[in-house]
Amino acid sequence: MPKQKTSKEEILRAAFRVLREQGAGELNARRIAEEAGCSVQPIYSYFGGMEELMTQLFEGCRRYLYRFIEERSNPEQRFQSAGKCHLAFAKEEKNLFRFLFLSPYMKANTFEEVYRQCAVNGVTQEIKSTLGLTEAGARRLYMSMMIYTHGIACMLAAEAANLPFEDIHPQVDFAFFSFLNQIRKEENSAGPSSGEKPRACGNRKELENRAGNRSGEERLNNK
């Protein structure tokens, strides 16, 4: 096969630019080739067609989201700041958010698959150790907050609502404590299992610090 003048990576970068600036509706072979400065032939040579290109573009966008969260999150409060970064991503990168979460390329059929694809590394263990929940309780709290936060993020990305962060964050905190209290109640009723002893609704200082800390909010509001 003759050597291609345009590399596979250049085509993916061109597709990313089209997606980010113009949206998924403009992702077709002709438009991507125009952005990359080549004919459509390299797209079919490297990817075999648009479907494989879109799959690889999806994975690249997901890596971009992880970097976005890592660069902006507070390492001492990964759970809190990861959710707020997710909201910021929906507001600042609407086209990428829609492609990642409002398109068929995610291919998740169960909540467990959603968890595996969307959970940020280390957050579940942070919830477990900081709040004294069991592994199952920590995963459930994370998943519940993920779903709640994602609903708000979808409204932002779809421009159905232009909500300021100072209005969003108290609602997120309210949902957090509601979910946490319910999970604690259930775990305390069930009693210790598998050697894990759930705490009473205490460690009040940790919870008050969690509710009162606004360092993540300030960073996002300055964007």
From TrEMBL:
Region feature (Disordered): 187-223
InterPro entries named among the record's database cross-references: Homeodomain-like_sf (IPR009057), HTH-type_TetR-like_transc_reg (IPR050109), HTH_TetR (IPR001647), Tet_transcr_reg_TetR-rel_C_sf (IPR036271)
Coiled-coil positions: none
Superkingdom, taxonomy of origin: Bacteria
A matching Pfam family: TetR_N
Molecular-function GO terms, alphabetical: DNA-binding transcription factor activity; transcription cis-regulatory region binding
PANTHER family membership: HTH-TYPE TRANSCRIPTIONAL REGULATOR RUTR (PTHR30055), POSSIBLE TRANSCRIPTIONAL REGULATORY PROTEIN (PROBABLY TETR-FAMILY) (PTHR30055:SF209)
Protein name: Bacterial regulatory proteins, tetR family
Positions of the HTH tetR-type domain: 5-65
DNA-binding residue intervals: 28-47
Organism: Caproicibacter fermentans
The keyword tRNA processing belongs to this UniProt entry's keyword annotation: no
Biased segments, Basic and acidic residues type: 196-223
UniProt cross-references to PROSITE patterns, sorted A to Z: HTH_TETR_2
Keyword annotations: DNA-binding
